[in-house]
Amino acid sequence: MNSLTSAVANGPAEYGLELGRDRIISTYTTDESTDLTHEKLAELFQNVDTIDGALTIVNTSYRNVSFFKAISRIRRNIERIGYDLSIVNNTELTSIDELLFHDLLDVEISDNPLLALDCTHIIEYYSKVRRIQGNVNDCGCELDGALTQTTILAVEDNCELIYGDFILSGKDTPSSDVLEQKFGKATILAGQLLVMDTDIVDLSFLGKVLIVEKYLTSTGRISI
Question: Which residue numbers delimit the Receptor L-domain domain (predicted)?
């Protein structure tokens, strides 16, 4: 993975970043080591239409990614394990409109506290393999491990899409009223449903769920 610095941008053709080319054949990162200005990045990518590989934007202070506006797609490498598009821990980022590609991508969009997402696009194109949390809105709720009276506090109310395994186990399970508050509007569960050794009487808090489907993680694990 190459980080976008002036040395790479001015480097030889094997970096895949010659000005005027219409493709980048590699995996590239913009991060805290990137020393290129917003204007230089816009110049660098002005004729780039396709990325063959993956794109990562992590630990930057960018407010937007308009320098990527010419890119129309990321061409996936099906043999590569990992996310096609990663946008992580960008404290000033408010928009990724230039990265709403009409491709079915595996995405990680996490810990960008000012970033509001276009959920219509996210749900249609970026929902099969995803890690999306810690943004202004996350277009669904992602679950990690069994739900307890403590972990349920981090789950948004009125979650319509559930990603990850829905596990209730043991005496520390949240009450049915709290589960109704969190998941009563959910229509899709992408993951397993496991209820074990609880005092739960019924699953009415999941009464609107119409679809329980496979959920494939970026490491290749399938939940059913």
Answer: 34-121
The structure's pTM equals 0.74
Tokens encoding 218: 């970026």
Strands 188-190 and 73-75: unpaired
> How many CB atoms neighbour CB 100 within 10 A?
16
Burial 127-150 (b: 16+ CB within 10 A, else e): bebbbbbebeebbbbbbeebbbee
Domains of the chain: 1-139 (3.80.20.20), 140-216 (no CATH)
Amino acid (1-letter code) at residue 212? V
H-only helix segments in 105-186: 119-125, 176-183
Q: Is 139:122 a contact under the CB 8 Å cutoff?
A: yes
Yes or no: say if 219 and 81 are a contact pair by the CB < 8 Å rule: yes
Listed in order, strand segments (DSSP E) in the chain are: 2-3, 23-30, 50-58, 73-75, 85-88, 107-110, 130-133, 141-142, 161-163, 166-169, 188-190, 193-196, 211-213, 215-216, 222-223
Q: Coil, strand, or helix at residue 204? A: helix
pLDDT digits (tens, 9 = 90+) for 143-192: 888 999 999 998 989 998 898 889 999 999 999 999 999 999 999 898 88
Tokens of 105: 């991508």
Banded pLDDT at 22 (limits 50, 70, 90): low
